[in-house]
Amino acid sequence: MIAVITPSLLSGEISIPPSKSAMQRACALSLLNKGTAIIYNPGKSNDDIAALDIIEKLGATIENNYNSIKIISNGEIQPPAFINCHESGLSLRMFTPIIAISNNAVSISGSGSLMKRPVDLFSHFFTELGVDIKSENGLLPVEIKGPLQPVDIEIDGSKSSQYLTGLLFAFAKKVDRLTIIAARNLVSKPYIDLSLQFLQHFGYKVVNDQYERFYIYPTTQINRDIIYTVEGDWSSASFFIVAALIAGDLSLSGLDVNSCQSDKKILEVLDQINADYYKDADILKIKKSTAIKPFEFDATDCPDLFPPLVLLALAANGKSVIKGVSRLYDKESNRAEALMNQFSKLGADIFLMDDNMIINGGKKLKGGVVNSQHDHRIAMALAIAGLMSSAEVVIEDAESVNKSFPEFFNLLQDCGGTVTLKT
Question: Of 4, 138, 141, 371, whose CB has the highest number of CB atoms within 10 Å?
């Protein structure tokens, strides 16, 4: 699909979609739960659908209702010989340790960009946990055979916190004594906060010691009925927050200002540039800025903010610096290269220095033909760029937004964006 974005002014209210980070965690723990879980405001992105497909194949029963999903499980893992994680990196890293709880031999694969993302970190700790593992030179497909035997272990947390989330979920289900997972150089700590919040909600006890050690206590499994409402997604909201600052006043509904989500940190940037915004219950209101200040921000723990923050930096009057480029190399694309290459086609001045991305803002972007690189966040950033360009921006492979935010272009149109979609 091709999306053509014409410079536009925005206004109105947008309902932010559910967080896929929260939705996928809710799916995983609903599978492990012995009982019934009702999830309100469920997500409908491709990654959410992938998680639901996985838990159904692992033994859960799913009933779809109006604005809710009922997940019924006996708490046991019953994997088939093959599991497809589609393009979801979180599903791959979170469900693989869960699947390893069983003693079945399972081949785990994916599609699209996930087939190019490394999985060799699994082999670094699975052997210590009694899990046999084989991969294709550190890439998918990966073959595993458990059962996973929880023991005190130390893992490398510098690549992604998602591996730790998977281990915490599997250990919480499996341990019969106090067990400790130590994590070195852990990144994306707010996502671990989110995982710990879910574990508590589902009745497990895990204690966080300075993000260096996690104490997992055994839990007696009982029939437990769980109710959970998926909160709005700060990652998706970040694009419309920036859109409002550059193209018009917007009200965003459905966001929890007390959320553990990492990308809520975009509010720190808004404070730094003295943006005109305020929070009212679950409504975040942002006013268009007539003069955006340059900023410096460390996105190491929230790398998904890079695309919208690059866009904000381009609208600023001066040089902005975003730290954490090393977190961008194993995303749906090499996101550092994708941001530089695609925005340069629109006249942007972006370059790298060590772990920093330097953006020289203040120059009017021109129109042009760009490509999402099959990366949903690159597609959304380029679309918002079209609002502030001097001519239309044509985005190839625009359907990549379906991975996390299938309603994106419709909502952009609803608030005044001029969008033409072509198949």
Answer: 371
Q: Is 257:278 a contact under the CB 8 Å cutoff?
A: no
> What is the tens place of the pLDDT at every residue in 233-263?
999 999 999 999 999 999 999 999 889 999 9
Q: Tell me the CATH number at 398.
A: 3.65.10.10
Please compute Rg for the chain using Cα positions.
Answer: 21
DSSP bridge pairs for 135:
142
Cα separation, 401 vs 398, whole angstroms: 6
Same domain membership, residue 163 and residue 28: yes
Taking the whole predicted model, whether its pTM rises above 0.90 is answered as yes
Please give the positions annotated as active site.
304
Tell whether 193 and 298 lie within a shared domain.
no
The phi and psi torsions of 7 (rounded to 5 degrees) equal -45, 130
Q: How many separate domains does the chain show?
A: 2
Boundary residue ending a domain (214, 229, 244): 229
Averaged over 85-90, what is the pLDDT? 96
Judged against a pLDDT cut of 80, whether residue 91 lies above it is answered with yes
Q: How far apart are the first and last CA of the chain?
A: 5
Are 393 and 286 part of one and the same domain?
yes
In a shared domain, residues 152 and 218 = yes
φ and ψ at residue 389, rounded to 5 degrees: -90, 165
Residues 6+ apart with CB under 8 A from 366: 346, 347, 389, 390, 391
Residues 175 and 256 in one domain: no
Q: Given phi > 0 = left and psi -120 to 50 = alpha, else beta, which region is 258?
A: alpha
**CA dist., res. 311 & res. 216, Å (int):** 41
DSSP state of 365: B
Residues 6 or more apart in contact with residue 129 via CB below 8 angstroms: 100, 148, 149, 150, 151, 153
* Confidence band for 146, pLDDT divided at 50, 70 and 90: very high
Handedness of CA 93, 95, 96, 100 (dihedral sign): positive
Q: Strand (E) positions, 104-222?
A: 105-109, 132-136, 139-145, 153-156, 179-184, 205-209, 213-217
Residue 217 CA neighbour count, 13 Å, CB half: 11
Quote the domain boundaries for residue 338: 2-17+232-422
* Cα separation, 411 vs 117, whole angstroms: 31
- Are residues 102 and 123 part of one domain? yes
Do the strands 61-65 and 356-360 form a parallel or antiparallel pair, or are they unpaired? unpaired
